[in-house]
Amino acid sequence: MSLFRISSTKILELQKACPTASILLRGLSAEQTNLKSVLQEKIPREQEKIKEFRKKHGGTKVGEVTVDMMYGGMRGIKGLVWETSVLDPDEGIRFRGLSIPECQQQLPKAKGGEEPLPEGLFWLLVTGEIPTEAQVQAISKEWAQRAELPAHVVTMLNNMPSKLHPMSQFSAAVTALNSESTFAKAYSEGVHKSKYWEYVYEDSMNLIAKLPVIAATIYRNTYRDGKGIGAIDDNKDWSANYCTMLGFDDPKFTELMRLYLTIHSDHEGGNVSAHTTHLVGSALSDPYLSFAAGLNGLAGPLHGLANQEVLVWLEKLRKQVGDNFTEDQLKEFIWKTLKSGQVVPGYGHAVLRKTDPRYTCQREFALKHLPNDPLFKLVAAVYKVVPPILTELGKVKNPWPNVDSHSGVLLQYYGLKEMNYYTVMFGVSRALGVLAQLIWSRALGLPIERPKSLSTELLIKQVGK
């Protein structure tokens, strides 16, 4: 009998009887290239672990809520379970415990490539384990095979006006894919809740597979000649197929996209796109509807549009100081920006208190592949000047750059200059994290999200007591 057919109950018995069995059993998944099979063995163990944890510590307090937190957008309130990543103020993002440099080092890469494949990150987010090359190749092939769009979505995309914002097109197309939802169909037929995760898994795999096709069609229709994007190649990875469909054949651009799609995938659960997807999914809306809602949040200027604002600001700066600027010229422009009541876009973060590791890895990519690009040189110079000024200002908790400070500059260099499209690419990436979590939310039976709200009048009364 195959080891992978050991029952989940038997696995739990083995783990309790022999602690070292956990290490042995974890190794089994390294031989299995079917992600769903790995999950079928892993989920019962996690369910049991959480059941025991809640039984022992269900009444334990993990934080307190202040009035400022309630009026300040719930900043700092510990109120979500998010398995796939955790954002530490000082260390930055960790995907299942691994930092971005560790992911770059340990996750499988394309043949001859240097950056991690997003398929490998998705496996890590879903299972908590570093995948083998065979496992990543299996995901690449499976996504290629699931990528075909239904005819009605193709017709819809091809008939959208080019003046409609790319994110509106993206969200609408994902919503329309709801017609293909296996979860919605199974739920309507009365499937048992213990099986929810399996249908959410199927929807999530199908959706992730189709996103590059949707995104590339939007790009071609809006900014190019609108001609067909070509067929998906089963022998190419997810990022490579996306780049080909976009019309970019530079191998370095493909490497950039592998990095971009990996590092933008997840940023714990409190950001707007992640939280929205989780919230809508908690109502048992299918993954298509849930992710479409998350995309609408991502489209906001305080979230996914931020890198556009950085580029606009940089172009204004470059127009004033030129390419042979001095540090004093930069300082003058930055102080002028701040004194006018504006912020320096791309600096600061709601949680981070250090340079965003996503900024750092993009900076390293630029130093390796485009060190002499004028716009990159400007970004590098701003990086030296802005933090001391913001520190001197004394009002900024985090004077360091975030991911948005750099991503647009790299895309511009390789010829993808249409800024309104950048958030679509962000959305393609963010699907990896939020859908991996959605699978686990249904596997763990997390309930509908329904926090209690108070009016200002009632809050004043309660605080007064």
Automatic annotation (TrEMBL):
It catalyses: oxaloacetate + acetyl-CoA + H2O = citrate + CoA + H(+). The active site is at H303, H349, D404. Pathway: Carbohydrate metabolism; tricarboxylic acid cycle; isocitrate from oxaloacetate: step 1/2. It comes from the Eukaryota. InterPro entries: Citrate_synth-like_lrg_a-sub, Citrate_synth-like_sm_a-sub, Citrate_synthase, Citrate_synthase_AS, Citrate_synthase_euk, Citrate_synthase_sf. The lineage of its organism: Eukaryota, Metazoa, Ecdysozoa, Arthropoda, Hexapoda. Its main location: mitochondrion. SUPFAM superfamilies: Citrate synthase. Gene3D superfamilies: Citrate Synthase, domain 1, Cytochrome P450-Terp, domain 2. This is Citrate synthase. The keyword Transferase applies. It comes from Galleria mellonella (Greater wax moth). Homodimer. GO terms for molecular function: citrate synthase activity. Keywords: Transferase, Tricarboxylic acid cycle. It holds the Pfam family Citrate_synt. GO terms for biological process: carbohydrate metabolic process; citrate metabolic process; tricarboxylic acid cycle. One of its GO terms (cellular component) is mitochondrial matrix.
